[in-house]
């Protein structure tokens, strides 16, 4: 897949495959093309070349709404929850069992996953802390029962303990068989969470491998991720 903003090409021949039940990360420093890749996958922008297949369909050029209905649940950068709706209203606005999940997510189940949200159920989106907003953004995506959950910088701006709460939730989802694509920068924690990793550098995939391989090569972290 390739992508460009106007005449400026920013993705060059990315080849990305995700199997059902797998957790994959996209890593790279700022400006390397991670968000652009997600924008293409979610239908917010069309690739200039190549194809995107999802659930057996060629979704290249589909609208974001249509791709979401096929089963892609996005937890966007900056959370983007509805500030003037309550926690409960934010959740019900997204509820749908589009993929006929056998045990669909319900308000009760997401409250079990995030007990803090239950305590805040009647609060407006703009009354929540950053961590609670992030939990709500994940819970809201789950309410659509996505086949693929995509998280763009979900841990950004969160205190370490709250961040760990988010990671633990993702561990739990993984154990339950949820397919997940994560863009984030905490490589040590991502090695524990995910199965495989891709590193992007100036719009090109420069390294791909599993968690054991990434853990064994800290020189890669320094070279491509600056950690
Ligand atoms: N709306 C836009 N218009 C023009 N160029 C853009 C736009 N958004 C991103 N770019 C450029 O595309 C390249 C890739 O950006 P992208 O946001 O995909 O990177 P990223 O890896 O997600 O980084 P970050 O973590 O900062 O979001 C960068 O050179 C960036 O300046």
UniProtKB/TrEMBL annotation:
The keyword Membrane applies. Keywords: Amino-acid transport, ATP-binding, Cell membrane, Membrane, Nucleotide-binding, Transport. It comes from the Bacteria. The keyword Membrane applies. GO terms for molecular function: ATP binding; ATP hydrolysis activity; branched-chain amino acid transmembrane transporter activity. Residues 1-227 form the ABC transporter domain. InterPro entries: AAA+_ATPase, ABC_transporter-like_ATP-bd, ABC_transporter-like_CS, BCAA_Transport_ATP-bd_LivF, P-loop_NTPase. One of its GO terms (biological process) is L-amino acid transport. Belongs to the ABC transporter superfamily. This is ABC transporter ATP-binding protein. It comes from Kinneretia aquatilis.
């Amino acid at each position: 897949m390739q992508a460009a903003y106007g005449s400026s090409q920013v993705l060059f021949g990315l080849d990305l495959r995700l199997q059902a039940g797998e957790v994959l990360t996209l890593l790279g420093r700022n400006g390397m093309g991670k968000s652009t890749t997600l924008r293409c996958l979610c239908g917010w922008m069309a690739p200039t070349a190549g194809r995107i297949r999802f659930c057996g369909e060629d979704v290249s050029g589909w609208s974001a709404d249509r791709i979401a209905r096929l089963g892609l649940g996005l937890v966007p950068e900056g959370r983007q929850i509805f500030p003037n709706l309550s926690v409960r209203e934010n959740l019900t606005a997204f509820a749908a069992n589009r993929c006929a999940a056998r045990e669909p997510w319900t308000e009760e189940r997401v409250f079990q996953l995030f007990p803090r949200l239950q305590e805040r159920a009647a609060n407006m989106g703009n009354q929540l802390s950053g961590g609670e907003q992030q939990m709500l953004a994940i819970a809201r995506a789950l309410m659509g029962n996505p086949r693929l959950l995509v998280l763009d910088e979900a841990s950004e701006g969160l205190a370490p303990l709250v961040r760990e709460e988010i990671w633990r939730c993702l561990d739990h989802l993984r154990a339950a068989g949820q397919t997940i694509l994560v863009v984030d920068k905490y490589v040590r924690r991502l090695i524990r969470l995910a199965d495989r990793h891709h590193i992007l550098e100036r719009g090109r995939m420069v390294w791909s491998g599993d968690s054991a391989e990434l853990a064994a090569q800290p020189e890669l972290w320094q070279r491509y991720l600056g950690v």
